[in-house]
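COURSE: Structural Biology Practicum
ASSIGNMENT: Worksheet 4, Part C
STUDENT ID: 0417
INSTRUCTIONS: Below are two proteins. For each, the amino acid sequence is given first, followed by its structure token string. Answer the questions at the end about the second protein only.

PROTEIN I
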Amino acid sequence: MFKKLFFKYPRVSVVFLLFLSVFAGVEYGGFAAWFVAQTIASALLFRSVLGAQAMPANCFAVTNSLLVESGRFGPGIFARAARIRPIIRLQQATRGAWENGMGVSVGAVTFERMFPNTYGGVWAPIAVSDGANVNACLPPTDTVTFGQTNRPYSPDHMAINTDYFCIRDIQFDFQYAEFLQKITKGFSDVGEWTWGSRYTSEYVRLAGHKLTLNTTAGPQDSPTAYNVSNLPNARLSQNLLNSLYMTLYREGGDLSEGVDENTNAPVFTLITSAEVSRNIVHSDPTIATDNRYAFMGSRNDPNSPLLAGMPIKRRNYGGYVHEIDPYPRKFTFSGGAYHEVSPMIQSTTTKGFKQEVNPAYLAAPYIESIIWHRDNYQSLAVNTVTNPAPGWNFNPHDWMGKFEPRNILDRTCNPDGTMIYFRALFADASKPINPAVGYGILHLDCPMNINLADCYGAYSTYPPDPTR
């Protein structure tokens, strides 16, 4: 503190130093005055060669993020990761590019369907011309109108920074090379996690149908938000999906989707959890019985929907391919609004922080399933211009979330280029295309019946059925 005051108020500090020296000389002699002056000046003006160095004011904080070996650590450094969400693969397969030079707000124009104004037409019998009111060459005329819907959209961006890393800290850390490899691998997990969250929220935001499943009021459909008056109290069923299948078919949703190899029927995509997927197959006893008879005699048929385990190979069931999302969005409800619950929760560990599966996420009562369609919206990559004109050069950057090192020289804070941090840039524009084929479905997340039984075969009622 005294050193900072000395450099901030040098004149006052010099006067104070002289006062102390004179006082020491008067009380204890000339040698004491010299000794006091030398001691204080050395403490203020000279920095220690060894030992801790205080961080200059207004500089970034540097914390050693890796483990320092003080005892011994066992061989091998293990890493934890998250599962990849299927919407990343689906959405990026249709990705386009934002066109520069068009401002930050662009309209997506949809040319709407065209049909005659009169349902059934204006047919009339042909009559012979009579020279007065009847002209056989002029049939009754109907009209057809057309229209376009404009939906504006804009690009969004964000960035993620790491803490600073000091090379002096790293070189003395335990197995630093392997630690740094784990950090680099973790960077890709961060990017995938960010895009999975972005694509999911944008898909539902732009979807024209947000269904809330209620047993009393029925499926509540809204183009803007999930219903807050009739909360979800029903689980997702195959019968509901059958109804939505025909709605999608009538909307022309089959035109750009795949077809079943055997029947050539359109196949749509359902993104949901493994638990919901199995509940769809097993919750209806009639459907379960039909499946048993259909696959009777075909031992371990990989196409059987009744096999245990999570399907890795995608299968068509009831006109839908079930894409298993390990982290679908889940919600609670309070204060008249839905609140999304994060799948992970941060806590401290031996060094730094860790992300654990959130118990509140597992217990959240409402879960979201998505009927994904490529024509709901398109993600557009927003790239940077590096040379917009002669003499104007900018650094190229990856805006897909790749972590790149930043070593920014600074006279006071980083004079030798020995401190770096990593920065990931994200930019994306969501172009609406045909919201009529996009569905978000909010329903109950029913726990699976784990069939706990005692020694005499009496099954418990755990977990209770929330629909009863």
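PROTEIN II
(use this one for the questions)
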Amino acid sequence: GGGGGGGGAPDLLVLGGGAWDRLHVYATDEDQKSHRQTVRELSQEMRKTRASGTPVAWVVPTTINTPALNTEDKRDHMREEDMEEMRGAYANAGVLSASSFVLDGPSFTAERVADSYDGVHYPPRVYDAGTQILANAMDWLLPEMVDDDPFVPPSPGKMANPFLGMMMLCFVFIGLMFFDGFMGFSYLASLFVRGVMPNDLYEEAFTALHRKMKLPASKSSSGSSSKKSSSRGGGEGGGEGGGSVASSANGGSASTGVDLSRRSGSGRSGSITPSRRAAARSDVTAGSDASSKVDEEIVALLGPTGADLELGARK
């Protein structure tokens, strides 16, 4: 046992015996009688020690490896059968009941008998296991639990706030209905950047998914698709055979249609029928502004050479 400092009572008292008693002081009847008296006195002292506040641990002798005993005296007096008798004698004398803790040697050595190289002693790793068992049992060294202020968890609903809960539901509703999960900041950004309205972004994001899953497109997405297709068709029509130009001036409207035949060779000039030329000439005379705009478009469509011919004929 360890002293508590200043020569006080030990913190723990570890006792054990039996093997060497059986070998040296148990041969005759007189030795056995004296041994029993000594063991009874030992148990009384152990009880007094416990009463004074010092815990006492008793170590029961470990298992004997009888075939490995290396002397004749040991083989005659220290066999495992003899040690079982000695363990019973200590128990009958009250040693085990007087102990704070009993470390049962056979419990952690019965399956390691082959490791006992001389029949009595074991390698350090076996004794380490017994030491760990003893250390785990030192619950008397732990401080007593203090239950003066027990923990009481709050009851369900105590921390609930109906107003805050309703406010969160309103935020969720606004985010769902206005397609905005950023509490209006997306609409604020649309004041400075075009094309970032949440509802437009929503349609743009799900158009590809609808197309992939073969779902009907939304109205806005289908409308934008039709506009793109119409503009694409108009461009192709102008490149292949003809195009139409509309112009307005001074509150009135004057329309001109200029149909071009398929381009031939590398030149940009095209042929215009007399009837179409007359119709275009009558339309462009509606106003000077419309005439100048048509002139620019004729130059863009027919090229410099064809435009000179057309404008000269018109004049």
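ANSWER KEY EXCERPT:
Q1: Residues 240-314 form one domain.
Q2: Confidence is low (pLDDT under 50) at residues 226-270.
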